[in-house]
Structures are given as C-alpha cells and as structure tokens.
Amino acid sequence: MQQSNLKAGCAVRRQPGCLRTSRPRLAKRVSYRSHLKRGGRLERPVAFVEQSEIVLTEHGRPVAGTYPDTFAILDSPANLCQIWSRNAEQYGNLVAIQDPHQEGSPKMTFRQLYDTMQDFAAGLHELGVAKHGKVALFSENSSRWLVADGAIMACGAAGVVRGATAPPEELLYIAQHSGATGLVVQDGAVLSRLLAHERAQEPNPLRSLRFVVLLWGECDPAHSSAVGCPVLSYNMVLQNGVAARQSGNFVPAVVAPEDLATLVYTSGTTGHPKGVMLTHANLSYQVRNLSHFLAVQPGDRVLSLLPPWHIYERTCSYFVLSRGGQQVYTNIRRLRDDLTAFTPDHFVCVPLVLDTLHTRVQQRLSAAPRHRAVIASALLAAGAAFVQARRIVMGLSVQQALPTIGLAGLVRRWAQILGAALLAALLAPLHWLASKLVYGKVREALGIRKTVVSGGGSLAAHLDDFYEALGLTVLNGWGLTETSPVLACRRSNPPEQNIRGSVGVPTPGTQLRIVDPETLEPLPDGRQGLVLAKGPGIMAGYYSDEAATARAFRAGDGWFDTGDLGWVAPPWVPGSRCTGHLVLTGRAKDTIVLSSGKNVEPLPIEDAVAASTLIKHVVLVGQDKRELGALVWPDEDALAAGPEASLLPGQLEERLMGEVARLNVARPDYHPFEHVAHIAVVRTPLSVDDGTLTRTMKPRRPEIMKRQAATAATLLARLRG
C-alpha cells in the first residue's frame, strides 16, 4: 500500500544558483563573490539561509529557474525574543505598528518597539516575573498587547493568553490551572468583571496573584484591596522599568529554543479548555518558514483585525514584523474605513470576513440603477465562470486532480478540458471587459493591494472564484493551535501553486500523512482519510493533562492527530498539475452517517449553501436518518434590504429551501444521497459570547445543538428514518 507522506522541501531538483537541503536547517554562511562581480546580489542582505533555497538576482532580475520569494533568507532567530532586537538593528526607524483607534493613537518604530518591550520587561521583572514563570494576559487586540507579550518573553516567562471577552469563569479557570503568578488585563472594566465573578468561587484564583497590570486606563484604588496585591497601570510599569534599566537592575533572560513561549487555551466543546504548550522553537519555526507562502517586504502594511491571542493571527503578526512589515490595528467596526484609510498590502483574516466583503459588494450592486446592476452582475458571473474554466485548462482544478477510471473516464476528462478551453475562449472578452468596467472599482473599494491570507476555517468555492476573478491573490492556509499553527498553505509565488479548493502544500519541514481513521494505516494518495502531522511546529503537549496529550499523539512516533479528513492529489493524473496539494473534506467527529450507511461530510455542503446572499450560517443534521436536514440562519441585513422582508415564516422557509437545494445540487461533487430534504429557519443569531461561534467565527456545532435542541429535534422528526 502506498504511503501518503508529504515532506516539504525534499527531493526537489537543484536549481541554478540554489542550495537545496533535505530538511529544514540553518545553512552555513555563504559567499557569492563571483556572482556579485557579475552584477548580482542576494535577494535579502542577510547572512544566513533558512530552508535551503538561495535566490540570486542578476541586475535586479531573478536567476532563471528560481523564485525570488520562495524561501526566506534571513538571520534565523532561535527564539522569539531575538526577532525584536534584530529588527531594531535592521529596520530601526521604519514604522512597526500603528494603533489609530486607541488613546493617543500610538505609533512606534522598530527601535521604539524594542525599547518599550525592554522597559516593560524590566518593570515586570521588578514585580517578580522571572524565567520559567507564567503571566496571564487577558486582553483584546492592541499595540500594548504586543508590548506585554514581548516583555513577558524577555523575562524568560510564558504568557498565558485569552481574550478579555471570554466568560469570567473561563478566565479564572485558566489563571488558576496555569499557575500564573501575575495578570496583565485589558482594563479596569475587565478586572471588575473578574472580581465580581470570583467572589462566589473558592478557592479564590485572584488571591494567588502577585500583581495585576492594566494595559489601558488608570488604576482604581478599590481594585488593589479587592485583589489583595498591587494593581498598576501600563505607564507605571514602564516608568519602573526605565528606572530599573538605567540602574542596571535588568538583564534580559537567556531563552533557549525548547523553553515555553506561551500557553494558549483552546475552547473545549465539553469541559474545561486545554492549555496548549508552544515553545520558542515551535513559533520561531513558523516565523522562519511562512515566507515559503507569502512574500513580505520591509514597509509592507498589514491590517491586524483578528484576536492577537489566536495563534493564527499571532504567528502571522510575528512573521510580518520580522520582515520589516508595518502592522496597523483595526476592529470590525472600523474595518471598512481602515481598508481605504490604511490601504494594506496584505490582509490576514478568516473566511467570514471575506464573505462579508463579498456580500457588501453584492449589496452595493443591488442598490445601483437596475441596468448597471444587471450588467455588473452578469460580468461578475462571467468572470467567475472564466476563472473556473481556465483552472481546468491549466490543470489547476482540484475537481480534475483524481484519476479517472478506464478509457471512458479518460475520454470524458479530455472532453471536459476541451469544453473548458472553448468556454474560456468565449468568456475571455467578457472577463477583459469586466476588468475594465467592474473589477478595478471593486478592488479600489476593497483597498487590499497584494494578498489576502485566509485561515481559521474553510474557504467557500464562490469566494475563491470571486476574488480570483478580481485578480486579488487569496491564500488559504490550514493548521491548529496545537501546530502553532500553519501546517499547509497555498503559495503566492509561483501562481500555479495557488490551487483553489485546496489548502496547499506543507510548511517546509512538516510531514503530513493520510491514514485510515480506525486502523491508522497509511492510505495512498487520492484516498480520503484522517490527516496526521509531524514536524517542528507540533506542540510540546497539553499543560498538566497527560491523558489528553496521549490521545492527541495516539498514532505514535510524534504523529499528531489533527482530527481533519482530507486527501492528497496524486501524481501522474492526466490534465492535473495539483500533485501534492492537500484537500480537506471535513472533521472526523462531524461526519454524519446516514441509515443507508453513507458517510456525509457536512462542511462542503455547508460552505456551498452559505454562498447565498440570503444565508449567514448552515448546520447540517441527519445522523442515522435516510436524508439530511439543515438548520439555516438567514442574513438578516440581506432580508431587510430585499423583497424577502415581507415574507411570512412559511414563505421564508420555502424561499431559503430553494436556495439550499439550488446551491447544494450545483456542487461539482454532489451525490443524490446528499440531498437536503428539509430545513428549519433559526432567527436567533449566533455569537462568540454565547459560545455558538468560535473566535474565528465558525459555527460551533456541539453548543448549537445544545441551545437549539428543540428546533433540531423537530427537524429530525421530519426526516425519513
């Protein structure tokens, strides 16, 4: 049986002017004097080579056969602390961060950011933070979060991170379970909320703290007496740190790669959240290798929207800043304005944000004069059809990535390619016209100049089509908190490595293996199975939870069970250039088994149906039934703006049922047993606060089924048994 075992960066043909190694490691210092004499130069002016490929240029042009942004060439940090000191030297006066919506609109250069981190670290050290200690960091996105994060690590301690809007009982549990000796919290309001909740809890988690620091706002004297330890403001800690550094009382800790960098608590579907232990080696590995997927140049601007304690946003932030990029903090209320006020070169987000932007474009078209709306919508549809056909012709469609069966299947495959070529030729003039009349205006309204990086959830096909037609590069990555996080991602360069419908290729040094979910035996390429991962980004384990750690590594030999199902595009498939790319199909625990014995992965259906402008979220049901049902949350804004606003409940259900059926049947891989027979319309919104949405805005199925138990039971009763 063929083993599906992807190992990025291996067995690749040596390119002219390139050094290729078999696994991730730091290469020796290299001299290219003869190349420099011919007018060439290193793509980046640094001394070390990471991930084995050196890209040289002749008079500013890449040497033939290499890609200028394929791999990072940098002085590789052994720990995260080294990023900030190196950046201060290399990018000193470049602007590193802007925080326009906070008090005073803070802006810092790389030198100022490093010095502020050191001052804050010295202040924390004065409060007793030392190597191998733990400090709870409960706050939302801001420049001061980044300062506190870097300062905690400079002391040799680990930040125990969670968002300030999480339930108080969850935050208090995390503070107690982690053994944190200090608390850095967003502001006095959050501290008051914790104090109000903890009075009813014994033992009192806050009584074990040595100090509390407020990132924003001034201290309330009542807080100190209530907590029983000093409560300081951000500025007070900075002032104490400046004095400590001037008197020579602070020396940054010596941090080893294997030292704990952070504890990230994941939301459990049942019971308490688990603390994921990520080391400096885990996160530094990500920082070194994300350039394999995305090229960030010094001065490139990135909008920071997602929670900074979410490891996807956090690692991307470290990476962008390590390359001299500029990070501008925004929030969901300000995003629309900030996309044009601070036009980003790159934008890191979750699929829901891309869906929201897409919906806004559709709404603006609907509000235009009828003749313009009809023309623009037709051109956008033609553009989507064009890029779909072009992918098939170029061999970049995942629908064509699996082998055909027999001669008849091969004939059908080439007939599809020929038909796609004809369609692309017919639609090319319309696509060109759309680029002149529509796409440019939409791109200008979106404000994003180069690249969108989507993660934290699956990216629906209609969004891929829409943004590709616009000419905006969208990369889709995949990973988990436990993998720090990026296991695989689509690549921006070369463009043919950005395979829509896939999550790309493994991060260099990471191995992926597809196995049978029951036996854990390896499966051949092209077969769906459970995805296992192994590599430098995999966590050290769950904090104080050996049983959960053992379950996560049940496959043995360091292989981590991702819980995701997928398949790898096999080689030598006629008409396909998708070899080695990973396609995810769902979560193993979410699989619906019908009474017929057929297995249904909900995610592809839910993503397809959510393409409707009238539908916000979908959750499939149907376990042990003969057919599927769906809980459907309508897009209330879209309903209010359209003729559906006047529909009665029964009429609305019928209207949405038509949308569900239409979009489900239109899927390229639709099977008759995946027919959705009935739906239930739910008007109670999903939210992060009540636990029905994850922090990356994905529906949380267990919590939804608990809260909507009656609705789900009624729907299931309508399905054939």
Mean pLDDT comes to 87
Report the principal-axis shape: globular
Q: Helicity level, as a percent range?
A: 25-40%
| End-to-end separation | 38 Å
What are the low-pLDDT stretches, counting only 5+ consecutive residues below 50? 1-74
Multimeric status of the protein: single chain
Structural class: alpha/beta
Radius of gyration over alpha carbons? 26 Å
Q: Number of helical runs?
A: 21
Strand content: 15-25%
Structure summary, number of beta strands:
30
Strand sequence of the main sheet, in spatial order? Answer: 6-5-15-14-16-17-18-19-20
- How is the biggest beta sheet arranged? 9 strands, mixed
Protein name: AMP-dependent synthetase/ligase domain-containing protein
Domain AMP-dependent synthetase/ligase: 86-543
Pfam families: AMP-binding, AMP-binding_C_3
GO cellular component, one term: chloroplast
Note down, in words, how this protein is organized.
This protein is an alpha/beta fold and 721 residues long. Helices cover 37% and strands 18% of the residues. The chain contains 21 helices and 30 strands. Strands 6-5-15-14-16-17-18-19-20 form a nine-stranded mixed β-sheet, sandwiched between helices. Helix 2 (81-91) runs antiparallel to helix 3 (110-126). The longest helix is centred in the middle third of the chain and has 41 residues, at 406-446.
In short:
This protein is α/β, with parallel strands linked by helices and 721 residues long. The chain is built from 21 helices and 30 strands.
